[in-house]
UniProtKB/TrEMBL annotation:
Any one Pfam family match given in the protein's UniProt record, by short name: Glyoxalase
Source organism of this protein record: Dictyobacter alpinus
InterPro entries, A to Z: Glyas_Bleomycin-R_OHBP_Dase, Glyas_Fos-R_dOase_dom, VOC_core
Name of the protein described by the UniProt record: Glyoxalase
SUPFAM superfamilies linked: Glyoxalase/Bleomycin resistance protein/Dihydroxybiphenyl dioxygenase (SSF54593)
Annotated VOC domain residues: 4-112
Coiled coil: none
Amino acid sequence: MFQGLRTVVYGVEDIEKAKVWYSSILGIQPYFDQPFYVGFNVGGFELGLSPTTKPGTSGPTAYWGVANADEAWKHLIDQGAKEHEPIEDVGDGIRIGSVIDPFGNTLGIVENPHFSFDEK
């Protein structure tokens, strides 16, 4: 059955501009870089950019783990993202929020002290 999140693909109209923006917010360069798809390895998971996928905020939201939701939120906003759902504590120390990237996609972040990459 399911083994966990592997890839989230965001639709973008300008893949070169999106590649630069995501490289900036992630602090890494893509491991796969072609005109039809750009892929970033983010902590063992893939964030993909596709010029053939329609951008938008109507689908499911993937939440990317962060160590500090406030710092990540500020970084995203400083880099040109727009507020979508402000950071809020949803209980048990878990804090979530989301932004709209410059290409119209919802980008979620989650600070979850109960989740560790070391867990099997």
